[in-house]
């Protein structure tokens, strides 16, 4: 199992949880971003800078992910692509996305995008909270405990 991170929009606190988990469980962690990232020195942690552009990091992750890998992203279309390849997804708020629920999330995302494009103000996500951080850490720990 490898952990892939859509790192451009990933909260710093989530990256810190991932750094600790990768070192503790000796799990490869690859952070993919359009910008240069500073990561702690570790044989388990790698930052990969991809060229700038719309969805370049997403396309790289979708192409590189393998069945059984874990992807950290809030991007629902990317999540759907990697779930189709047999990977699991955790969003930064700790929600596990898999074959059982990704279509529902994708449909809702597309519906909300349609509303926004027609001028309806839908508001944004709630502020990231300590409960979100804890939910993410707990979900990550559950998945890493199952790692072969």
What does this structure look like?
By secondary structure, the chain is of the alpha/beta class. It is 43% helix and 15% strand. The protein has 5 helices and 6 strands. It has helices at residues 12-25, 56-64, 76-84, 102-117, 130-145; strands at 3-6, 29-33, 45-49, 70-72, 88-90, 96-97. The protein has a 6-stranded mixed sheet with strand order 3-2-1-4-5-6, sandwiched between helices. β5 (88-90) and β6 form a beta hairpin. α1 runs parallel beside α5 and α3 (76-84) runs antiparallel to α4 (102-117). It is globular and about 50 Å long. The relative contact order is 0.16. The mean pLDDT is 91.
Total number of helical segments? 5
Mean of pLDDT? 91
- Identify the strand order in the major beta sheet: 3-2-1-4-5-6
The major beta sheet can be summarized as: 6 strands, mixed
Shape: globular
Please report which band the strand proportion falls in: under 5%, 5-15%, 15-25%, 25-35%, 35-45% or over 45%. 5-15%
The radius of gyration computed from the alpha-carbon positions, rounded to a whole number of angstroms, is: 15 Å
| Through-space gap between termini | 8 Å
- Poorly predicted runs are none
Which structural class best describes the helix and strand composition?
alpha/beta
Order of helices and strands: EHEEHEHEEHH
Count the beta strands: 6
Roughly how much helix do the residues carry, as a percent range? 40-55%
């Amino acid at each position: 199992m490898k952990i892939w991170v859509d790192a451009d929009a990933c909260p710093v606190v989530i990256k810190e949880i991932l750094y600790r988990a990768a070192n503790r469980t000796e799990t490869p962690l690859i952070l993919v971003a359009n910008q240069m990232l500073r990561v702690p020195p570790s044989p388990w942690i790698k930052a990969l800078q991809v060229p700038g552009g719309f969805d370049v990091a997403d396309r790289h992750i979708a192409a590189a992910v393998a069945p059984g890998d874990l992807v950290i992203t809030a991007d629902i279309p990317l999540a759907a692509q990697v779930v189709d390849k047999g990977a699991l997804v955790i969003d930064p708020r700790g929600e596990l996305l898999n074959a059982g629920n990704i279509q529902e999330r994708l449909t809702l995302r597309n519906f909300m995008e349609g509303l926004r494009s027609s001028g309806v103000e839908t508001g944004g996500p709630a502020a990231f909270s300590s409960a979100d951080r804890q939910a993410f850490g707990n979900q990550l720990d559950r998945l890493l405990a199952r790692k072969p």
